[in-house]
Specification:
The chain is globular, with a radius of gyration of 20 Å. It contains 8 helices and 17 strands. It is 26% helix and 27% strand. It is α+β, with helices and mostly antiparallel strands. It has a 7-stranded mixed beta sheet with strand order 5-8-9-10-15-12-11.
Length: 368
């Protein structure tokens, strides 16, 4: 970071926080973001997944040139998220709809991102399309200590699972039988590490889609919410003060049962119980904001939800400051049937994504 850039950072952030707290304090700031990359596929056909349409011979006519443009577009967005409050790119980025580790390696080599020296944490999921979740992190600030992919076991014919198998499912060691009709979806990625010396855990999600209808598929996302809750519980049993961030494309809004009941997220900080979680995106939804649109109706499927330990009112360690939806004008369709929607890929234009990214700021008071 140049001296000029450092001075700009201190001025912008110092000014914002001084207005907020009506006193002169300086804070360290980190942006944590999530983005659904929407079909980040390379051009190579993988015979083990349903990626045929995202090849030069497929219906998307997905050429090397289009792939390179997609990487460039995504890198512009990722380098921009969280500005101007924090001129640095996000320290931590969760992503979804990622074909493999290779596309992430290509992405972080883009000129807009290369200088931030991102590391990658990625596992292949059993999703039939071959899309996964992953975490990118700036190596200078975040040091991973452990990471794992936790499978989500859901079934079309759940009544076929015996009681003893349900117990095994909760312990993530279920025996799959043909009659159970397992629905193969994305794993949940758990990463624990140190953010400037403070331990924090991140869960990256892409919950089951609404294929077959919202009501019929709701039970799958509720199971995803329950798994998320179990992961958080396990972290809090080890450390009652564990700082946990769960983020992702949940394919449900903040008001749905998967988020409100299965995960137990609260819309107001004052309502968050001990070991509970806070969802800053619920109030945004009721204000008419959104991360994606369908038939001119906006919703917030992309959310970042945090444990109570991150909303305590002191800033002696990293705590939540505020959240946002990154919807800059260049990410918005300006004409046609989908005017105002996120500018996504079409057969004639390589866009960005059909989702807007979301982000939160973590801040800590600097004692000089």
């Amino acid at each position: 970071m140049t001296h000029k850039r450092k001075v700009k950072f201190l001025f912008v952030f110092f000014f914002s926080i001084s207005c907020l707290f009506a006193q002169s304090k300086k804070y360290t700031i980190h942006t944590v973001a999530f983005y659904n990359f929407e079909n980040l596929f390379d051009t190579i056909n993988d015979p083990s997944t349903n990626d045929d349409e995202w090849t030069p011979a497929g219906v998307q006519n997905w050429t090397k040139e289009k792939y390179q443009q997609k990487l460039k577009n995504l890198s512009i967005v990722l380098s921009d998220i969280g500005t101007p409050e924090n001129p640095n790119a996000p320290t931590i980025i969760g992503g979804s709809e990622i074909e493999n580790r290779g596309v992430l390696e290509d992405l972080i080599k883009e000129p807009k991102l290369l200088k931030f020296d991102y590391g990658i944490i990625h596992f292949d999921s059993p999703d039939k399309r071959g899309i996964d979740v992953a975490l990118l992190y700036q190596k200078k600030n975040f040091k991973p200590t452990s990471y794992s992919n936790i499978p989500l076991y859901i079934f079309k014919n759940k009544e076929a699972i015996k009681e003893d198998e349900k117990e095994e499912t909760e312990n993530e060691e279920v025996k799959i039988k043909p009659q159970n009709n397992r629905v193969f979806t994305r794993d949940q990625l758990l990463v624990t590490g140190y953010l400037d010396g403070e331990e924090i855990s991140i869960i990256v999600n892409h919950w089951p889609s609404r294929s077959g209808g919202e009501k019929a598929s709701s039970k799958f996302r509720e199971e995803a919410g329950k798994l998320n809750r179990r992961i958080i519980d396990s972290l809090q049993r080890i450390n009652p003060n564990a700082k946990v961030i769960t983020m992702g494309d949940l394919n449900d809004g903040p008001y749905n049962k998967s988020v409100k009941e299965a995960l137990g997220a609260k819309a107001k900080k004052a309502d968050v119980p001990e070991f509970g979680v806070y969802n800053p995106f619920e109030e945004m939804f009721y204000k008419g904001m959104g991360t994606l649109a369908f038939r001119d109706s906006w919703d917030i499927f992309d959310q970042i939800i945090i444990s109570k330990s991150l909303i305590d009112p002191d800033f002696d360690s990293f705590k939540f400051w505020k959240a946002g939806i990154f919807n800059r004008s260049y990410l918005i369709q300006t004409s046609g049937k989908y005017k105002g929607y996120p500018l996504r890929h079409t057969l004639t234009e390589v866009g960005f994504s059909d989702h807007f990214p979301v982000y939160i700021y973590l801040i800590k008071e600097m004692h000089l």
